[in-house]
Amino acid sequence: MILALLPGAAWAQGCAEQRPGWDGAPVGVVQETVFLASSPAALVLFLGTVLALRLKSQWGALAVVLGWTAFATFLTMLAPASRKIAMAEGCVGSPALFIGTIAAICVGMIFYTAPLIKGR
Q: Of 18, 59, 62, 70, which sits most exposed with the smallest number of CB within 10 A?
């Protein structure tokens, strides 16, 4: 009786919206990172990252960092209620590894595109 009250695969309303093909197995951090990295928004931002690094553009790096920040903000603070329900049900994992990875990319991009200081 108590188990029927817990969220699970049988009550996958949030999962039907977030991950329609979910098989019932809990999603781990690495699986969620791969899923988020293959999303269209992330792919566009990866392309922008590569272009900013290739051209060594400070303004391009700034634009891409702001894009990554907006994407991470959406995942953490502005996520729809269905994503939070899906995380409780287990079909959506924690985005922590993905956000840590993009934070490291952003810091590296800022250091790489920073102007050289002469006289040191």
A: 59
